[in-house]
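REQUEST
  id: r-88c1
  op: predict_structure
  target: Dipeptidyl aminopeptidase
  payload:
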Amino acid sequence: MAGQYDPLADDIAHIDDSRDHVDHSDGSSDVSYRDNLDDLGEKQDERFQDEPRMEQGDEDGIGYAVDSRRLRPRKKSKKILAVLIIIVVLAGLIGTFSAWAYSAPAYFAKSGNRHMVMDHVFNGTFNARSKYIDWVKEAQDGTFSHQDEHGNIVLSTVDSMNISSVLVNASLVLDSTGHRLYWNSFSLSADMQYVLLRTDYVKQWRYSSHANYWIHRLSDSSSFPLLTPTDPPTTAYAKWSPVSHSIAYVSNNDLYVIRANELGPGMKSIRVTDDGSASVFNGVPDWVYEEEVLSGDYALWWSPDAQSIAYLRSDESAVHDYTIQYYNPTNDAFTVHQYLSEMDMKYPKPGTPNPLVTVHTFSLATYQTTNSVEQAKKMLHWKGEMPVESRIISEVAWVAQDALLVKEIDRAARVGNVVLFQYGETDGKVVRTLGANGEEGEGGWIDHDQNVIPVANGQSGYLDIVPKDGYNHIALFSPLQSGEPIWLTEGEWEVTSIAGFDPLNNLVYFVAANPSIDRHLHSAVLPTSGYGDFNPQIVALTDTSQPGYYDVLFSPGARYYLLSYKGPEVPWQRLMETGEEGVNVLMEGNAELNVTLAEFMRPIVTRTTIESDGYELNMQIMTPPNFDTSGRKKYPVLIRVYGGPGSQMVNNMWGRDWHTYLACEKKYIIVLVDGRGTGFKGRKLRNPVTDDLGRWEVVDQVAGAREMAKRVYVDRTRIGIWGWSYGGYMTCKTVEADSGIFTLGMAVAPVTDWMYYDSIYTERYMSTPEQNPEGYHSSAVNNMTAFGKVDFLLAHGSGDDNVHFMNSATLLDKLTQSGINGWRFRMFTDSNHSMDKRNGYRQVFEWMNVFLEEKWGKGGTVHH
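RESPONSE
  id: r-88c1
  status: 200
  body:
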């Protein structure tokens, strides 16, 4: 389910460290970690009790820097006295509020006096710059490609970044009529003889698209089309082989292969399938597999030796149609269309037929000897295979030159198998069992992730991320037939991804959520023998003594990596070499952003934990500049929620968005609570919502609101909640719960009944309606009584292909039939789940601004 609504939505170059390095050793951070909320900002000195009012755009007003560690110089005796007082006060607070358990130093930011306006949210003022390295696995490790100012494709290496060689001269890439070709992406063949160019790109769903493809031969700078270009294009995917320059592609939902020795103008393709249609897909996923299983635009996989292709065939003939109506297909709202247009899409809902997905292989070696497509392709089966209508193929991966791994799980994601196929076999062997009686070892769902990585160091085996004692960790399965994991990591923390593998040094690089709101890079040793006596050997490669959220992009050989620091301070990037010595270059320091931030008022972000029914939940509080905790001023609290299974909102990522604007300009307190069901704290926190969405997550949001309501500086008549997508659902369910703590709710594009959402996502957490009828009823938004007790806002795009408009339409109908008045609704014509039509996205936030101003006004007002 889409839940991203971040309103803050380069070429590689050496950057001078001296210009972009930012030193935060002076404590100029706006992030704190606290045991409790009563000392939020302390009293912030008497200077901050009555900050001057400043109108929008007033650059000359007085701005106060809140820095708890560096106040004005005072006499030594006064400094000692102040320290003693603070120690006594903190000692009492720690004893009183032990439930707020996450403890770390607190820091306050120096703040400017410039006001933030809505334009700053949307015009990129606070966007952090970042660079991307497109590693070229076909060349020596450390080689990357990019396009220069002339559009040429050039290659550089980490060791000589300022020296580039032109791989493709853009002026020489011509179509069949001699006109220059323009492309939006490219890929290099494994032998570096050809470049595949994608042109005429047309987006379809979240990941999928269609395009025309051209092949550029480097030896003579000639170009020829993969297929005769069409308008609109029909090719959905094309992929070079991992050896030589064969190519597989999908056109009109059929799979084709061109062998390396036949590549050239007028080439002939091998048509592997011939049943592709609007409802049968070969080598690419249908909508629901693209959205909820594969998270990508392809369903074909070359074997490492390029002798075979595995692919999925999806038949959605029995899947029910859903019709989306469009009132105006243009970008001009004033263009008149007398009749609306319609789009039918296959959209399976809970309890209705899913696409029938089967696994197939095509052997080029067999085709070479038999010249028969039918003899070269096989459908794969295994003993104990689930009925095709009742299962999901969640992963397909080659784990050796001649070995294929397939994962299947049932629709409810409670049981599953991992099946191994050796070369030439059509009957596989179940080598691992998933679910409560298998690797998960308890209740809850089986995740649909794709984490399998073959071990390419001469030994037989592969890596996967598997639950260990309720936490996701890296396991080695060796030999391939083994079902017993050899654990490379362990502990009460979770691995989020395998980032790289170094076969020469037997090292696995991974990112871990340890603690859960951080992301740190680590390495682990891969055992080569003595598995029974092996103990995990883990080394942290980022500073785990400090809060940090890192992302990493390794080179194919894992010798180099682009390390991206994403918070809690301003993001930066460094290009680094593994080992203690080697390349360490600052790629982006965001110096200009630091200068910009120093001009503006800045909120304080506090990250802590609360307890709810014995569960420790992560919580984040953003408070306004010059925050007064004395209780003389009262502040509204707006809880921002997502809360979907496995998601996370509270983390150490840096960001400035609409919520920053609300804190700084409206003087609101913005709160996030990651309740039960959310991710990166183990299955114990995730599992309670199984078959029961919308219950315990609501309890935890209410707990967060009640905790805030205890604070003397909170206006208990102005506590609200808002969210988008699953967050919109959470908003509706929280309002429905009638806790008495919330007075306002804003829901954007919400699910209101899980019978309306797609089958694969919903049944993963709720089982099927037949298995869990009561759960589906209780999880729907049905009780309208409390909606008449709060200020409620609802928005939805009429063209939403993900969370259909009917969710809001039925909620509106229930409100009407129940006689509930006072709510506010706005439809965004033709907009999808992201509200992307005709300025819709910004208008959502502008409209909520108006609503909040009308219902709440500003915070930080003096209480009489």
